[in-house]
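BACKBONE GEOMETRY TOKENS
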Amino acid sequence: MPGKLPKLELILHSGELSYGKWGHEFEKRLNDYIGFKNILVTNSFNSAMLVVLTTLGISQGDEIIASPMSCLASNQPFTCLGIKVVWADIDPSTGTLNPDNVSCKISSKTKAIFHNHHCGYLGYIDEINAIARNNGLYVIDDAIEAFGSVYKGNKIGNVGSDVSVFSFQTVRLPNSIDGGAVHFKDPIFTEKAKRVRDYGIDRNKFRNYLGEISKTNDIFDSGYGATLNEINSYIGCLQLDQIDELLFKQRNNALAWEVFLKKNDLKVEILSKAYQTPNYWIYGILTPNKTDTIKYFRTKGYYASGVHLPNNYYSVFGSKSELLGVNDFYSKFVALPCGWWFSLND
């Protein structure tokens, strides 16, 4: 650890452990990297989602259109607030929302489209955003696995959607041990979200000239204890110093997988990546025999996996409706390890 986290001891003994200097610095570096100015860090992805939903005023009885082909962590926050999840089907060649099916699921109760970018592969961003604009809905980009993915020259988080949500949990990039972030395109929502993630408090007005809690400062927003502490923020900053190198390694691994698949004449289809450069959180393939393919790669020493179970299998979301695109994709999709820590040559 010496030399790797040079300021950790200073932070631990500083008496300033909650969101502060390093939290602001992490936000600044994220803004600089992605290309916007309104990002707010949180203590988890789940907290980030709750902050987003509360800030947008999406609550019990409202509907949100989402893909079941995603991480459970993505969709679970809706159940906490009594929001009805309406599952839309996916394009089985991409694993992401099918715009035509999304259009069919809109009702008078729909408030937003939750656009998951499956395993770092970006979906039909322009099409989904256009559907939302034409129907007066928000688009929330679920970038839980997609940090650093690029769509038509812009990094995810800066592709025109109303909101973007990120995870910095242990298996994500950047990894701050745990944490998340939100970005609102509208700065008015950003200012509200600052209060929502901090118990509804406006810190600029909370205390008087003596440092006492001011009686004149009212609390009018519901909120959470969702700020990111200084240790996680500091680790996140160090990760961002290396992020281009880590993503470069993952993209090189993807190229190596393409060579491997061709060399071994495997009957698989590479997951579609039109208009984008994925972050290659994993390397996705489609195969006519999922179980045999997983076993094949595991016998070679590569831990292949299906990664996620479609969330419409879970009773907590209510409807277990069958979706043909989801069924087709799930029956064929296999993820190959592609992280920065991995080398196919080894």
Notes: The mean pLDDT is 95.
